[in-house]
Design a protein that fits this description.
The protein is of the alpha+beta class. Helices cover 16% and strands 45% of the residues. It has one domain: Immunoglobulin-like (Sandwich). The relative contact order is 0.20. About 10% of the residues have low confidence.
């Protein structure tokens, strides 16, 4: 699990190396890391936004839950293909899944979280609590 407030955009493998002290491939092998989708975490004055690259999935393949200040994103997709010809039957099965967990900072309003899936990207908006937002940054124009 990762705390959104301390997100380090150096890449998932670097984050895992920092957290575990080793590369995740040392524990699980290279194939495991290929199954994890890329994730961007963006913070604005109003909200955090998590973007998960998950092409080939559909809205119904995702399960997103918030429990005890943790955001859990899961997806499962099963594909079955069967071809019957003359004296044989060919069956192909493909199953893919992933799970990502994030520890939410205290500044997130858990009741206002929204998600959408478009063009292979799952976008989750995590609004900040009103009392945390404060005043926006004022840009000073240089003359």
């Amino acid at each position: 699990m990762r705390n959104l407030a301390n997100y380090n955009p150096l890449g998932i493998n670097k984050v895992l190396e920092n957290f575990f002290g080793n590369s995740i491939t040392d524990f699980m092998g290279a194939d495991f890391t290929m199954a994890q989708p890329s994730v961007n975490v963006v913070e604005t004055h109003e909200h955090f936004r998590i973007e998960v690259a998950a092409p080939g999935l559909e809205r119904g393949d995702f399960d997103i839950q918030v429990e005890n200040d943790h955001l859990m994103i899961k997806a499962e997709k099963e594909h079955k293909d069967e071809v019957k010809e003359d004296n044989f039957v060919r069956r192909e099965f493909n199953y893919a899944s992933f799970s990502r967990n994030f520890q939410l900072p205290k500044s997130v309003d858990g009741e206002g979280i929204e998600a959408k899936y478009e063009n292979g990207v799952l976008t989750i908006e995590l609004p900040k609590k009103d009392e945390i937002k404060g005043t926006p940054v004022k840009r000073i124009e240089i003359r």
